[in-house]
Amino acid sequence: MGDCCPPGSHGPVAPPEDYVPKGEVKDVQGVHTYVVGEGPKAVIVFPDLFGVNSGRTKQVCDEISAWGYLVVLPDCFEGLPFKDDESLVTFPKVLCNILTLKRFFKRNAWANVGHIYEEKVIPYLRSEGVESIGAVTFCWGSYAAVHLASGDDIQAGVHFHPAITKVAGLAGEKYQNIFEKAKSPQMFLASNPDPGNIKAGGICEQILNSNEQLNGRSVFYTFKDMKHGWVNRGDLNKEKIRRDYTEAMRRAREYLETTM
After folding, report:
1. Which of 33, 38, 162, 224 is 20 to 30 A off residue 135, Cα-Cα?
2. Integer-rounded Cα radius of gyration of the chain
3. How far is the C-alpha of 221 from the C-alpha of 218, rounded, in Å?
């Protein structure tokens, strides 16, 4: 069915050793959830396939919270993120294992993880007085977040290097069906090697912008110098990656402010 992430993507990266997360991990109805910030508006962050401790994921959560949001990052994989030796991505010295890859995505299909968000995370946010909820995602997370957007709780989503079209297939679903059910506008910030169907002019944009309810507010933009995974796993010591990280975060902030 094809890789989840394009060949040459940024591989798995540990959290920065010199960064101390500003939030705390709370038990949200049995789900370990990183929580930071406060306010009447909240952002649910959906991780990439390497889980909640992948690269700068929590650091990005902290940055979003500084924009004035209550931010939550649930461990939707329940402590069992994707392991690099299970990956189809062409990382050095990693063999492709299609059967294991399929098992991972089947295990984490929306039918199996959706209840975490619908029955636990969103009720928690409502109990905290949250009035408006957005989503920010990495890679795998775009698949779950657009699924969640089929309900009435998500006002907008921002997706960094989205892998929804590939993940849906690996989970045994048609991505077109997921997009057709979305009830809120979405922004997709793709890297250059991400598939064309998730970029400007692709089928995903056509589906969302043909939905009169969304009023043409969905946005598709490609960072042509970037590889998949740059926002939370790219090396910020490299000038171009730092430049496009900053620009991606600026676009995300502006979009959330105008849609939530």
Report:
1. 224
2. 17
3. 10
| Structure tokens belonging to residue 52 | 């909640």
Selection from 167, 33, 160, 197 nearest residue 102 by Cα: 167
Alpha-carbon distance of 246 to 2, in angstroms, equals 30
Task: Tell me how crowded residue 214 is: count the other CB atoms within 10 A of its CB.
Answer: 16
Q: What are the pLDDT digits (tens) for 201-252?
A: 999 999 999 999 999 999 999 999 999 999 999 999 999 999 999 999 999 9
Q: Give DSSP secondary structure letters for 110-136.
A: HHHHHHIIIIIIHHHHHHTT--EEEEE
Q: Is pTM beyond 0.70 here?
A: yes
The rounded distance, in Å, linking the Cα atoms of 112 and 107 is 7
- pLDDT tens digit string along 130-154? 999 999 999 999 999 999 999 999 9
